[in-house]
Design goal:
Chain lengths: ~210, ~210, ~210, ~210
DNA sequence: TATGAATGAGTATTCATTCAT
DNA sequence: AATGAATGAATACTCATTCAT
């Protein structure tokens, strides 16, 4: 395009403001999330976010400390959604075994429908797991916590051989993360293959932990 | 130092040429690999590679199509080393069960001692798995092939319940990849924790596949 | 901290208002002076001043025309303090010769204990000497005036060879300024060296002007 | 102007190359020096230098490490010229006393005809005195050295009371620097006033050091 | 085979300032 | 009297890449 930088900004600037219902912070966050999912981690830039919403790059600094802060918020929106999905899945079933199953599939579904997000959260910037931007609850702890809760429930009800809850949970997590992350990188697996694999993985986890429940 | 970029290149240019025994392609590749492991994926740049070996950035284009091509070769060196490690491990044992164990630990060791490489190969640019640069054999297929070979041997000798070899192998791979990739991202696990987890994972895999071998 | 700029302002905004006894103009000026002495001329910014006192940058424009105006006032506070120091030194002694000595050392001490200020006043923005912001008396004239007064007194009492008072004063000023400004720039002299040099300079000035007083 | 950034560059780019006789390094340095003298220390920017010579900002980095390195070279060109002027003045006279006089006026003349340079060298970035970019001799040491040489000669020939050569020299330097730097900052003195003052200063220095030579 | 010279696009960030409220 | 929202311009710097030689 043969438009000056400022011209391009003005054009975009015209087309905005109507969609600017909520506050700008949300607008930025949405745009950022969208662009992030479109361009991936490496090509994500503040400038593009600004351009996309028709504001000056400077403006973003009024709502987010810096690029990383914005990215952290993008990630955290993922954590929240992720946590909610798992929580919902957990709530749909009464039994530890079924719960593990449901939560597992919720995990899988989240990863498959928000692949870029999943990668940001668990593969590229996993250290975000440790930060909590203001106004957010630590949903990650909750997410992993669900797993631990289920395992504990399993042990309490005699379905799972007693052992270190944290280790058990980590093992389960690693299992599902393995399939999922393979599925997400490099088109190694089709969705169907990934699904089939995950189903087997789930079975294996169940067999490993709930064997004597039969 | 207060040296211009071009000056710095000249300085480096002086100190080279003697180590330039083999052809330049290898020299570049080695330097690239080294710098890549040092700086990581995001901070890897052609200029630094050029600087490191005392050549102009331009020169690199005589041997590699572009940055990505160079990176592909870096990855492939990883695949070759990876393949050899697994192959060696395989060769040390006669039994399928032991072989799976040995190969698994070789896998773990490779990932832990070449974390950046592992991430490039299997997490960041896993699509490289599908490309084969000229002059390379598809060593990846070989690597995954080892797994398939072991599984097939297990089935043949009646230790593993017959089934889809490819699926079985993928399942095993996903399991180990899960622990390893968790261990590599974001300081979520210490080396010791990762090792412990991997041991458990190995056990689980064995139980799942070789259960009736006892 | 991961606080947005506007958030940080709000936080600061909370903790203020109690210290805001006098009018805001003074508060701003104090903070500006402080920050200026801390960060130096080049890194002095309105935003930081605003942040420091818990007000919006905009607010500063209600009390000062622009950045330069604020800086001018900062400088003028320096001039006032400077003038007072010299005046005090002058008052401590009855004799022209002693007065010159005392005033000289007051000059030196001011420069050494307010180096950033001295540089602003006499080296970076010496044109400020010519401006008088509203509500200020031209204290600079007073400062230089002291010198002229002393010289005049010296001439009147026969201690100094009659001559152009203004020129004599300028000469003296240049002498002390020479040592002081060398001492302030670039770590060329230690404090002790500067002090020694200044003492010699003072002697030279005395010899030059009060020679026949003995 | 309503020109795109790249358009403006191209326009300038057209008008160059003919003046580009020597190598680009010199061209850049000249332009930098010119712009520096025009805009002063604070408004000196790499972009403008690039624009001025019709090259991309990037190009400058091929010849200078960074902004400061360029500035250092600008300063050093000043030091060289300065040193040569003093050296020449020194060479014109056989006698210490005359030499001091000649060198003093050379000093004054340099400062008056390269005011911005003088400020960079001795007032803003006096720490440059300590650095020597490659390919340059430390001309500053030489410059101050001339002073010391003269003083030593004066002592040797019995014209100057024996004493610490370095201190004597520093004292003289401070004296001339005092007048000069006053003259350069803030339009406090006209050229004529400065000149008159300097003449007096010179006299004073002579009287102080060569008194008994008569 | 290799270089030297140069580009163009892009990056995050900071600043003084304005305007409507 | 003070703010919130936003701007526009600028900055240093780095990168992959190309082209003529």
């Amino acid at each position: 395009m043969s438009l000056t930088k400022s011209e391009r900004i003005k054009v975009a600037s015209a087309a905005r403001r109507e969609q600017q219902k909520g506050d700008l912070q949300s607008t930025i966050l949405e745009a950022a999330t969208h662009l992030f999912e479109e361009n991936g981690y490496e090509n994500f830039s503040l400038r593009q976010v600004a351009l996309a919403i028709g504001y000056t790059p400077t403006t973003i600094y009024l709502y987010f400390k810096d690029k990383d802060d914005l990215l952290l918020h993008v990630a955290y929106d993922g954590f929240r959604l992720f946590g909610e999905s798992l929580e919902n899945a957990y709530a749909t079933k009464p039994e530890p075994s079924e719960r593990l199953d449901a939560v597992g599939w919720a995990y899988f579904d989240f990863a498959m429908s928000h692949p870029i997000h999943y990668q940001l959260m668990f593969m590229q910037r996993a250290e975000f797991l440790a930060c909590k931007p203001e106004g957010y609850e630590s949903t990650m702890d909750n997410s992993f916590g669900i797993l631990e809760r289920i395992v504990q429930e399993g042990i309490d009800s005699g379905l799972i051989t007693p052992g270190d809850v944290r280790t058990y949970s980590a093992l389960i997590w690693a299992s599902v993360h393995g399939v999922v992350s393979l599925a997400l990188t490099g088109n190694l697996l089709t969705y169907e293959e990934a699904k089939g694999l995950f189903a087997l993985q789930q079975e294996a986890v169940h067999r490993a932990f709930f064997e004597h429940s039969k």
